[in-house]
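**Sequence with structure:**
===
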Amino acid sequence: MSLHISPPSPPDLVDTLAVWRARFPHFAEMIDAGQSPVKALRYLGLGLWREGDVTGAVAALTTAASLTPEDPALLADLGAVLWLDGRKADALACFIASIERDPSRIQVWLTVASLCNDIGETATAEHAYRAALDLDPASPEAATGLGLICLESRRYDEAVALLRAAMERGAATPAIAACYGQTLYLIGHFAEARAAFERAAEGLPDKAPIIRKYALALCVETALRETPEQAFAAYRRAAGPHAESEERIGRFVFHALCGFGHKEAATRFGEALLRATPEDTIIPFHLDALRGRQPERASRAYIADCFDKFAPHFDRHVVETLDYRLPDTLRPLLAATGRSFPRILDLGCGTGLAATMLASFGAELVGLDLSPKMLEKAHERQIYARLIEQDAEEFLAAAGERFDLIVALDMLIYLGDFSALFEGVASRLAPDGVFAFSFEAGVGADYTLAPSGRFAHDPAYVARRWEKDFVPLAFEATTIRIEANRPVDGRLVLLRRRESL
């Protein structure tokens, strides 16, 4: 980023100086006494800034900087008034020029970081905060700023360490305590999260969202060591008038306990939830996993009910919270085949997160899912030629149309035994057709049901299932999603149907 400083033109400058001399007698005295014009102009610029005359401050400091462009302090002052004037790119150029001339000024690094955060230059902001910490490892501002960037980019362990350090160094505002509590909650440190949220709630007693977060963390913490009834009682006391329904909070707590591997507490809590709602189809499946039972697949009722509940906020949750990127990961693998696929079947299409990508490879896209509410969301995209509400194995087993590409992204995690699915896909693929799918990678057993309600499969087992009917085209290790804020190891696979079946 280049820096070009142009002072006002001479006629304008004469008139402007006359006005400034009248407004600031000490400035006139400095000029008349033969003091440095740069010093006088800087005094003037800072005075205009204090009075709220940003335009005048910019003019005065620009003139001063044009006379001494190597003065780092003056460049930093000019950057500050340019930022105040809304000229963010010019301000950043001044700050960077100041740092180039004197990289030891921590406040300039912090200002650069703040400005870069403001304009969305997160990588540069992070670099600036780290430079500030190198200059002063005890800087609470640098630790706070860098900690918030790490939180936003899901580097939770680093965020916890930085925000803890910032609070220890004096940045213990309620807002920072709330961010610290959220980070701790996201990595499963529920007791510490509760303490941080409690501190935030005490400082912000009118902020219902923070009070709810405090109450939820307290509920999870209590559920780890006490009965579900005691956990709910603790929640109600903490949340007060801001309490949400026990059914909603109960599911949050149950999923948190499952996700972070607290099997005993999760089982105890899940059983209590099921006693309250015995018709529930979702909790029993998770309880099976917690108790070590291994069904061959998730029930159709479980899948439909689970995703009907998720449908309203599914896209935001999987993309922003779970960091789901499989369609983007699959795109180059499909492109590498050098083929187009006139007819494409999207198994477990959900809301259609992969629809735009898949449609770029074919003329007709058909979506299939068990959840009617997910299909409603997929229909809103107006990309699918048809949407079918049916179980994937049942659809594939029935005689019917063939497809050039069948895709199953993040769908096989609800199946244990792949035999029927792979046979069905082979029967529905056109000659030389391609099957693209993902699975979570497990070790040892052919497949294992996790408390999260998803199956993980041994890659060797998956390879045995495809070897009869398919030839592998690609087998790529990838991150399926973030689970309990840790990356889930998986594989993305492309298979070509054997010519003779």
